[in-house]
Write a structure and sequence with these properties.
Blueprint (H helix, E strand, L loop, with lengths): L3 H7 L13 H12 L10 E6 L2 H10 L11 E8 L5 H18 L3 E2 L2 E2 L6 H7 L6 E10 L12 H4 L6
Antiparallel strand pairs: 1-2, 2-5, 3-5, 4-5
Helix pairs in contact: 1-4, 2-4
Length: 165
Amino acid sequence: MKDAITVMRERRSVRRFLQKPIPREVLEEIIDCGRLAPTANNFQPWVFVVVTQEDTKNKIAELATWGKFIKDAAACVAVFCEKDNPFHVEDGSAATENIILAAKAHDIDSCWVAGYKRPYSEEVRKLLNVPEKYELISLVPLGYSQEHPNPAKKPLSEVLKWERY
C-alpha cells in the first residue's frame, strides 16, 4: 500500500476504466476510510451507498449530467449526508476525499462527480431508496484505470503565500 503523500501526488481524475471488478473487502476498506473523515461536532451525518450492479450504474450514468462514464466503473459510491446538519456539504466532501484517497492507495482510480443540488440529485436518492432526510453530496465512480492522465498542476510557488497575499 502507498503512503499518504504518494497517494495525493499520484491521484488524478479518471473517466476510463478496465472491466475488472473490485473485491468487496477492498470496497469496504475504502468506505471505512470515508466514515473516518473529520466531521463538525463529530455528527458523522453520512451514509454511503456502493453500487456495483450494471443496471443501477447505467441508470445513475444516464441521470448524471457530467457522469456518463459511471456506467463503465467497477463501482460507484453515492455519498449522502443528513440535510438538516448545518455542515453536511463540508462533512460529505471530507468523506468523499477520504474515499478517493483510500481508493488510490489500492491503485483504484476515481473521479469526483458533483451531486449536491444537481438536477438529478433527488432522482438518484430515490433510485437508491435512500430516506428523504439525506441529500446527495457526491458520486464517486471507482475502477482500475484504462488511462493515466497527467494534467499540469500549478506550481507551489504560484499558489503559496506566506503571512499575506
